[in-house]
Amino acid sequence: MPDSSNWRDDLSTRRSFLKMGAVGGATLIAGCSGGETQGTPAPGGDGGSNANGSGGGGGQASGNRFRVFDPLTSGATPTERHFNPWNPSQTGCWHPGAAVFDRLAVYSPTHNEAYPLIAKSWEMADESTLEVTLNDQWTWHNGDTFVAQDWVMQQEMELAIRAASEDASEPLINSVEAVDDHFIRIGLNTELSEIFAVQNTIGIYNGNLARGVFTKHDDDQWVDWHERLVNGSGQEKSAAVEEITTTKYPKVTDDPIGHGPFQIAEVGDDIVIMEKYEDHPNADNINFDQFSLNLFSSNQPTQPYSTGQVDAAHKGFPVQDDLKSQLPEGHKLFREGRSSNKLFAFNCGHGVEGYDTPFESPNVRKAVAHVFNREQVKPLLQGVNRMFEWAPCRVPGKVLEAGDHEAAEWVEDFTLYGQNDTERAAELLRMEGYSKNGDKWMTPDGEAFGISIMNGADRQDISVLKRNLTEFGIDVTQEQVDDATFDERRNNGRYDIMPDGSSANGVTALWSLGLVPDWIQSITHFKPEREVPMPVGDPDGGSGTKTINVEEHIRQWQTTGDSQYHKELLWWWNQTLPEAEMMYQPDAGAYNSTNWEMDVRDGILNGVDDALYIAPKMPDGALRYVGD
């Protein structure tokens, strides 16, 4: 995660795109939300919503067309977009691709559940083989039946592209086979429990391939690329990789066909209009004819949404308190389970040379977290950030708030920091040899205890932390450095405390192998293996301690599916405390429920990036017009 606030920006280059890949990548990377500023609509007012005579009238809703704010305003305009998932430039695979194409299964990272879509069922034939049966009711928009070979082609191309990329790590998928038109066999390179296998194969939820199946197995262009990638010589493969990762095929303007509930009808400079595909298996759940993406000059949907120029937006909510009065009467949020954490990150000092950090000791880290007073932050919030009201545990705040996941019960016994518990903080510091001289704390060496905070001067929780520590008797220095210096110092362990931002989009995503034992360890320098007090929930260690190797624990959890490993990982985080969640920011979308209804299970409504596209696809879901 190269940047603490929006680390995905640094992964947008073609080279990084190839190295990252998509197969097996869902547990490695999960998206973060970024802050946006309000702007004004494009000239003409409604971003093309008057096209075909629908949706105009000064922002009046219509039962004929569902109008959605186009979230790619700062990226590719509609006429530039394409449906090639391997060319990251000007891609339209998410918008509007996720409406035009379907996927085999829908995975909810917030609920850690998978729901069938094109896939009718699945099961593990053995510990490293997933078998999938497809529904035979899906057809491409030209009437051709969707078959297993369509998905298999896409995965074989992805595997070949990954194998040809620089420093390619071993993919999760070893092999894919279309046993017949509606049966797929997937071989894995590692043993996984069923939910982790589905999450990382047919239910991947990150990146372009997660949005749908874009390859048609008998399309001439896909056939040519597939043949060269899978069976070509080394030079031929390299040329094919270069071609497929730079070619815009098929363009949104070229009448492409998909197999989702909507098909491309019209593409303008500031609008994409899609029409309902009547032969979609779940078309009866849709009671309107058109779905449009409306483009505005600002990448902030607040104004066009508030003025009725669009009916919904995928992102940009919640808004600050002073803007809430402008929202429509039927304003409702969705995707509320999607969020990003705002954390204090400690330099834990493992393997660091040339910098003496006081936070090598977990007790010193805990002491600082105890001194913090979260109640003093609440009056400073403006309606967007939320306080993380629970014990640090690396579970999304919205998941804990809902209370449906078993972790909500686990963390009730965890150590709750941020209570300005100065007595406990003092006890922990004295255990490590610190002492009080008057109003000031002294280090075990007899020096005045002082720490520096690198960046974060604009964060409300950091400002409160500085005041709390100063009042407690610890000297605090605030340092603001440029991005390059920030990256260099955190990677080399040359700081004491810094702010960090971490995607919190799922109970499993927060514990991916590429995130905790790899990325977070590389910037917080925690000791990968450490003893923690046991049993879980007892910080005094009534049963002694247990040595936990974080990477091995995650692997055991993924292999067995045993939630005890997850529970112990949460406890390790709470007691080791390389970082402490103190705030989180929801990354929600919104729709006007006066005129529209989203009826879909909560794991999708509040847990899936493109819930707005998924709702009308599901056999047990719907997106309906309910206005007058």
UniProtKB/TrEMBL annotation:
This is Peptide/nickel transport system substrate-binding protein. InterPro entries: SBP_5, SBP_5_dom, TAT_signal, TAT_signal_bac_arc. GO terms for biological process: peptide transport. GO terms for molecular function: peptide transmembrane transporter activity. Residues 114-507 form the Solute-binding protein family domain. Residues 34-66 are annotated as: Disordered. It comes from the Archaea. Keywords: Signal, Transport. It comes from Halogranum rubrum. Belongs to the bacterial solute-binding protein 5 family. Residues 34-61 have a biased composition (Gly residues). The keyword Ligase does not apply. The keyword Transcription does not apply. Pfam families: SBP_bac_5 (PF00496).
